[in-house]
Write a structure and sequence with these properties.
It is built from 7 helices and 5 strands; from the N terminus they run E-H-E-H-H-E-H-E-H-H-E-H. 35% of the residues are buried. Strands 2-3-1-4-5 form a 5-stranded parallel sheet. Helices cover 54% and strands 10% of the residues. By secondary structure, it is an alpha/beta fold. The protein has a single domain, classed as P-loop containing nucleotide triphosphate hydrolases (Rossmann fold), CATH 3.40.50.300. Helix 1 crosses helix 7, helix 3 runs parallel beside helix 4 and helix 5 crosses helix 6.
């Protein structure tokens, strides 16, 4: 059994549970939690939603890549660190290249929280007060399907562990319970040669 786990990153579409599960997983691992959206706000004084509304998607993706790059360049990344990366962050080639290198050199474990668009759209509607505007002019379901087509293959390529996040929030699948399952999955992944 592995006592100290290498850093972990979590990817997934908006409302997949990256933040809620990430916080729980970090607590279980005795590590720290880092969220790219929160880091953007801390670094710039402006929320992700404000960036998207005021400056557009391209400007937001640039600051997101810069903030993630700074975090990934921290040497060494502390054991037990859990990083929630923005849903579109892996569309950036530089972010993908850094993650690929760190997966090999530092043993980062990638987690993909996957859920059908219908589930994600319902979650977004329930959390409508969250400061996150749409990325396109499409209705939420169509936007989600488009993003899923673009990001799904990238998330799959960078995931060591895939979680069906659709049932999270149903009886027996709280964020804590998903994090407990992930802790064991991460330990198993780290134990493999």
């Amino acid at each position: 059994m592995v006592d100290v786990l290498p850093p972990v990153y979590i990817v997934g579409l908006r409302a997949s549970g990256k933040t809620s599960i990430g916080r729980e997983l970090a607590a279980l691992l005795g590590g720290t939690f880092w969220d790219s959206d929160q880091a953007i706000e801390t670094a710039s004084g402006k929320s992700s939603g404000a960036w998207l509304r005021e400056d557009g998607v391209a400007a937001f993706r640039r600051i997101e890549a810069a903030v993630i790059g700074e975090r990934l360049d921290d040497a060494p990344l502390p054991p037990g660190l859990v990083m929630a990366l923005g849903g579109g962050s892996l569309e950036n080639r530089t972010v993908r290249e850094r993650l690929a290198m760190l997966r090999v050199s530092r043993g980062l474990t990638g987690i993909w929280l996957r859920a059908p668009c219908g589930v994600l759209v319902r979650r977004m509607a329930m959390a409508a007060q969250v400061d996150r505007p749409p990325l396109t002019d499409l209705d939420p379901e169509a936007e989600c399907r488009r993003l899923e087509r673009v990001r799904g293959p990238i998330h799959a390529r960078f995931a060591d562990i895939v979680v069906d996040a659709a049932t999270m929030g149903t009886p027996g699948r709280s964020p804590r319970e998903v994090a407990e399952w992930l802790e064991e999955a991460c330990r198993a992944a780290c134990s493999r040669p």
